[in-house]
Amino acid sequence: MTDICPSGATLAEAEAFLAAHPEIEAVDIVLNDSNGIGRGKIIRRHELASIYKSGRHMPISILGLDICGEDVDETGLIWDHGDGDLRAWPVPGTLKALHNTTPPRAEVLMSLYELDGRPMTSDPRHALQRQVDEFARRGLKPAGAFELEFFLLARERGADGKVRPAADVLDGRDSLKTEVYSVDHLHGMLPLFSDIYAGAEKAGIRAETMISEYAPGQYELTLHYREDVMQAADDLIRLKRIVRAQARAHGVVACFMAKPIADYAGSGMHFHVSLMDEAGENIFAEKPGSGWTEPLLQALGGLRATMGEAMLVFAPHLNSWRRFANQSYAPVSTSWGVNNRSVALRVPAGDVKARRIEHRPSGVDANPYLVAATVLAGILHGFDARLDPGPETTGNGYADDPDGPPIPRDWRSAIEAAQDSEFLKSALGEDMHRTFTAVKAAEFARVQRTISEVDFDLYLHTV
Asked: Where are the alpha helices (DSSP H) in 266-367?
């Protein structure tokens, strides 16, 4: 057992924070599981220093929970280990005050370690760190940012039992229109948006443009590009908590389901990624007058080749797959293209120095640490195998692509593909792969044995 903090966090960080924030009475300590759900505890102010000095014991089973927070024995994290304790340690730089809390609270992200200080390899942050370390070994540093799409919904469902867009928090005005890119529509939610921006600022997150998206009640919030891809994933996971908390404070529901409303587009979590060399140069950026760089093309080739095996990471829930209806602004093939929003892998137009790949398959319900780890592993696969991505899609990326690599078409097929995937096992690490696929299989079994309202609607009086 070690009392040397393996994450690199120091007691001085906690002491400086407490000195600067005498108003803070409690701290949320948050560990994210394979579904990206924050698990942990709320500690009192006087307990914070001990977290930094000796960590905090947490049961190993905390990383083997399904979407309902119930144990999944098949992860091997429950009875195989006697459901023993490991130690969670603070992630350096993540201790931040929370906005709009009574009494005043703070939050710190945690990561799980073995008692001897080794990373606990079913922790999603460690899965991403493995890929970051491999790039570092090759003299490269991944940079990136996620886009956050979400719905703001009313607390009560409509008379038909379906969710409905939230009324404006400013004056209670209702709208069932799509309102895409409407600036005036955004004004009705400005008090809530102001609190979201204030919360992001306290968390050290550079939240930027707010957009009214392509469905009633749907919005998008963009995040500043990070030179550290781990920080980009931290930003996304924390911003979801901020949006959810501030929406709740304003009497509405922030929804991060991939597809909450059947007749409209779902919510994506597009991941923008580039690679910097040791001189700080973007290796995806082409020289003036030249064509696409070899690293960019190989990265696209690797992402295309591995997408089918990785789709469970990008679409981890039953509802995730409802997002992939044709012509619904979600990619349905492994196509790539330039300045084309119908493809899965988009190379945005613009400044050559900022050349990047926009990875578009993931829903906002996906775990950003696992998404980033899998995308990075796909890029490395393209580098190692020197893959060509094939011809660029210049038109409708929603059209069938019979010559492209196949991808699953439903949740069950995605689970089976992931379970058998040597690529995904390498991308996430064997322990994280086993944990993630076991949790997904358990959730699939839960859904299969649940009789839904659609069953009654279709069959109760007809068969």
From this structure: 294-314
